[in-house]
From TrEMBL:
This is DUF4395 domain-containing protein. The keyword Transmembrane helix applies. Residues 18-167 form the DUF4395 domain. Keywords: Membrane, Transmembrane, Transmembrane helix. It comes from Aurantimicrobium photophilum. Residues 1-22 are annotated as: Disordered. It comes from the Bacteria. InterPro entries: DUF4395. The chain crosses the membrane at residues 25-42, 62-81, 115-146, 152-170.
Length: 178
């Protein structure tokens, strides 16, 4: 087995790539917000209740923060990773202080990862609003694990799922594969 295998996440020739440190920076901010969300959910599980109205559950600190996290994932998933708010912070404040990246990353896998994050946190938000605290905790915990892996180890779980789906022929690389 060759150790010089091409990186499946690397930007394809002729496509615009992204600095791979940007999504990792965003994952760190996401990890922090998900940690706070888990603290909200675990420290006061009675705050969300099926006997509350949807608006009451939505207006809790857990509901408000989870809405924010879900919207951030939605921006990354539907507007693209290049429009992600945490990416803008990275480009403005962090990137100028770093050396140039040694390799650029294809933006499609991190954008797909944002879609997975959106779906998981949206499920958590639905559980939270319905007062199903355990469901909200489980969904947020899944997102937390993925953000932790990316932030601490640079392992993007959603990106790896994208690569597996491309290899299986379920999703394509669009013009990058042409």
């Amino acid at each position: 087995m060759s150790s010089n295998k091409p990186n499946p996440l690397a930007a394809q020739p002729g496509t615009k790539g992204i600095d791979p440190r940007g999504p990792r920076f965003g994952a760190t901010i996401t990890l922090i917000t998900l940690t706070v969300e888990l603290i909200f959910l675990l420290s006061n599980p009675e705050a969300l209740s099926s006997s509350n109205t949807l608006a009451q559950n939505f207006a809790t600190p857990a509901g408000i923060l989870l809405t924010y996290i879900t919207v951030i994932f939605a921006i990354g998933a539907f507007a693209g990773i290049g429009k992600h708010p945490y990416g803008a912070i990275f480009k403005a404040l962090v990137r100028p202080r770093l050396s140039a990246p040694t390799e650029l990353e294809d933006p499609k896998p991190p954008t797909f990862a944002q879609l997975i994050g959106f779906i998981i946190t949206l499920a958590g938000l639905v559980f939270a609003v319905l007062g199903i605290t355990a469901g909200a905790i489980i969904a947020v915990a899944f997102a937390f694990v993925a953000a932790f892996l990316n932030s601490v180890f640079g392992y993007c779980l959603g990106c790896q799922i994208y690569v597996l789906l491309v290899r299986a022929g379920i999703v394509g690389r669009g013009s990058a594969s042409a």
